[in-house]
Amino acid sequence: MTTGVESISEFISLVRSHEDIAHHADDCTPEMISEAEEALGLKFPPSYLLFLKEFGTCDIGGAEFFGVYRTEAGGSQLWGSSYETLDARSQWDMPHSLIAVQHDGMGGTVVLDSAQPSPDGEYPVLVWDAGAKARGTMEFLAADFGTYALDVGRREVQAAQNSI
Prior knowledge:
CATH architecture: 3-Layer(aba) Sandwich
CATH topology: SMI1/KNR4-like
Largest sheet: 4 strands, antiparallel
Number of strands: 9
Helix content: 40-55%
Order of helices and strands: HEHHEEEEHEEEHEH
Low-confidence stretches: none
Number of domains: 1
Distance between the termini: 33 Å
């Protein structure tokens, strides 16, 4: 069985080998990661942490993964996962245990659920939306961020190759 960290390492290689359809930052500092975790009141799981350290934020084939980054225009404001999570908490009452990592394109937010850590510290990847609490369940996408990102990345690379 492949771990989340092994999968995110493969994802990193996939992005690096397909720079023609991928974009990423490279300036996410340990201080920025700590600041984001402090703002959220949560720790990032190992595979997502490795993603942040490597890229900060990234998209491949148009599939954008929230990270942790700053922009010149935004000054000291952290953007990406922490911003999207805090925004969803305040606007839509998203549960505190969730960390936003992507929009699903259908009105939902792809999240990591820190309330369900695995023995290796990874969080499952689920889809949350404002009606999730009323339904009592969220759609399960993957056991960890690394597996999820690698699956999405492979699909995007395949789609790009098929369009040539």
